[in-house]
């Protein structure tokens, strides 16, 4: 099993989540996952839509998957396409 480790997400020098309007998008949503999440599980969020008919735009990786933690990296749909 592959985890969301260094090879799957971009390390950030700043807290990038502050650059996105993560609460007010009409068509997209942003997700926070823990750094030890399986890559396959992360990929599933990019497939299809959630119950509000929104697509996952980016996944923010934090230590425990909590919004109030520093962002360690991000995963985009293209990052997990071949998993």
Number of domains: 1
Beta-strand portion reads 15-25%
Tell how many strands the DSSP assignment holds: 4
pLDDT < 50 runs, ≥5 residues: 7-13
N-to-C span = 10 Å
Shape: globular
Gyration radius, to the nearest Å?
A: 12 Å
Structural class: mainly beta
Question: Sheet bearing the most strands, described?
Answer: 4 strands, mixed
Strand order of the largest sheet: 1-4-3-2
Helix content: under 10%
Q: What's the mean pLDDT score?
A: 76
Q: Helix and strand string, N-terminal first?
A: EEHEE
Task: Characterize the structure shown.
- The protein is mainly β.
- The protein has one domain.
- The chain contains 1 helix and 4 strands; from the N terminus they run ββαββ.
- The chain has a 4-stranded mixed β-sheet, with helices on one face.
- Helix 1 links the parallel strand 2 and strand 3.
- The termini are close together.
- About 8% of the residues have low confidence.
């Amino acid at each position: 099993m592959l985890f969301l480790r260094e090879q799957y997400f971009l390390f950030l020098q700043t807290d990038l989540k502050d650059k996105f309007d993560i609460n007010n998008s009409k068509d997209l949503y942003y997700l926070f996952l823990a750094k030890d999440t399986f890559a396959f599980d992360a990929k599933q969020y990019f497939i299809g839509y959630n119950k509000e008919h929104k697509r996952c735009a980016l996944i923010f990786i934090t230590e425990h998957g909590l919004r109030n933690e520093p962002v360690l990296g991000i995963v985009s749909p293209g990052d997990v396409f071949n998993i």
